[in-house]
Specification:
Blueprint (H helix, E strand, L loop, with lengths): L1 H24 L1 H21 L4 H27 L6 H7 L4 H24 L1 H18 L3 H7 L5 H26 L1 H4 L4 H15 L4 H18 L4 H30 L4 H13 L1
Helix pairs in contact: 1-12, 1-13, 2-3, 2-12, 3-4, 3-5, 3-12, 5-6, 5-8, 6-10, 8-12, 11-12
C-alpha cells in the first residue's frame, strides 16, 4: 500500500512539473481563453433573442472555441517552443466536428429527461441529476481522448473514455476531489457538487463556459474557506481564473498522457524498479 501511495505521489509530482513547464510556454493560451470568453458572452447576448436559431449559433460557436482550446492544449503539452498568437489563429477549426458529435449524441437523452422533468418535477429531477452525474463521471476524460487518442467516431470517444475511467478512476478523480474539497464541505456542498456535475455533464466537459466555471467555483470555495470577504474575492477570481483554468487543462492533459496505455501494476513496478537504481 505504501509503495502504491509513493508511486501515485511520484506520478502527480511529475505531472505538476510538466504542467508548469507547459504553462510557462503557453501564456498566450491564457490570453486566448480570456478573449474566447468575452467573445462567447458577447455573441450570447446577441443570440439570446433569436430563439432556436440563437441556440444553434451558440452551439457552433461553442464547438469552435472548445476545439480551438483543445488544439492549444495539445500544442502546449508537446511544444518545445513558446506558443505565439499565430498558434491561436491556426487553432480554429480543429476538433470542431468532434465536439459537435459528442454534443449531438448527448443532446437527445438530455432533451427527453428535461421533458420528463417538466411532466414530473420530483422524479424527473432525480433521473436528470443521476444521468448527468453518470455522464460527468464516465465521460470526464472525453476532451483529452479527443485530442490525444486516435478515433474514427464519436462512439469510440465514449468507449475510450469509459474504459479509461474504469482503469484509472482513483488517480484521475483524486486531484478533482482535492480541488473542490472546500466547496463540498460547505453547508450547501452536496447541492453545489450536483450543480457542478450537472452543468459539466450536459456537455461532457466540452462546454466552453464550464471550462471556466470549474476553476471559478474551486477558487471561490478556497477563498471562502480562507475567510476572504466577497468584495476581495471578486478581484482575486478575476485575476486567477484564466491561469488556473489553463493550469487545470494542462494538468489533465499531462495526467491523461501518463495514465493512458498503462496500468496501476505497471506504474507500481516502474516505481519499485526506479527506487532500486
Amino acid at each position: 500500500m505504501s509503495n502504491l501511495t509513493s508511486a501515485t505521489v511520484q506520478l502527480y509530482r511529475q505531472v505538476l512539473h510538466a504542467t508548469w513547464r507547459s504553462l510557462v510556454k503557453s501564456w498566450v493560451s491564457m490570453v486566448a481563453l480570456i478573449v474566447f470568453g468575452l467573445l462567447f458572452l458577447g455573441i450570447a447576448r446577441i443570440a439570446a433573442p433569436l430563439g432556436m436559431a440563437g441556440g444553434f449559433l451558440l452551439g457552433m460557436l461553442n464547438a469552435l472555441l472548445v476545439g480551438a482550446t483543445l488544439r492549444l492544449i495539445e500544442q502546449s503539452l508537446s511544444a518545445s517552443r513558446t506558443l505565439g498568437f499565430k498558434d491561436v489563429t491556426e487553432s480554429f477549426g480543429h476538433y470542431f466536428w468532434d465536439v459537435i458529435g459528442v454534443g449531438f449524441i448527448l443532446w437527445l437523452p438530455t432533451l427527453l429527461l428535461d421533458m420528463g422533468l417538466q411532466a414530473n418535477p420530483a422524479y424527473g429531477q432525480f433521473l436528470l441529476s443521476a444521468f448527468l452525474l453518470l455522464v460527468f463521471i464516465l465521460l470526464n476524460p472525453a476532451p483529452e481522448v479527443i485530442y490525444q487518442v486516435r478515433h474514427d467516431s464519436t462512439l469510440e470517444v465514449f468507449k475510450t473514455s469509459y474504459e479509461f475511467v474504469l482503469e484509472h478512476w482513483i488517480e484521475w478523480f483524486l486531484p478533482f476531489v482535492v480541488l473542490i474539497l472546500p466547496v463540498v464541505l460547505s453547508p450547501s456542498g452536496l447541492q453545489e457538487f450536483f450543480s457542478l456535475s450537472g452543468r459539466a455533464g450536459r456537455g461532457a466537459g466540452l462546454d466552453f463556459l464550464q471550462i471556466l466555471m470549474l476553476p471559478l467555483t474551486a477558487i471561490g470555495g478556497w477563498l471562502s474557506y480562507l475567510g476572504l470577504d466577497s468584495e476581495g474575492q471578486e478581484i482575486v477570481l478575476l485575476l486567477l481564473t484564466p491561469p488556473v483554468a489553463m493550469a487545470i487543462l494542462l494538468f489533465r492533459g499531462h495526467l491523461f498522457a501518463s495514465l493512458h496505455g498503462s496500468s496501476r501494476r505497471q506504474r507500481l513496478f516502474s516505481h519499485q524498479f526506479g527506487a532500486r537504481q
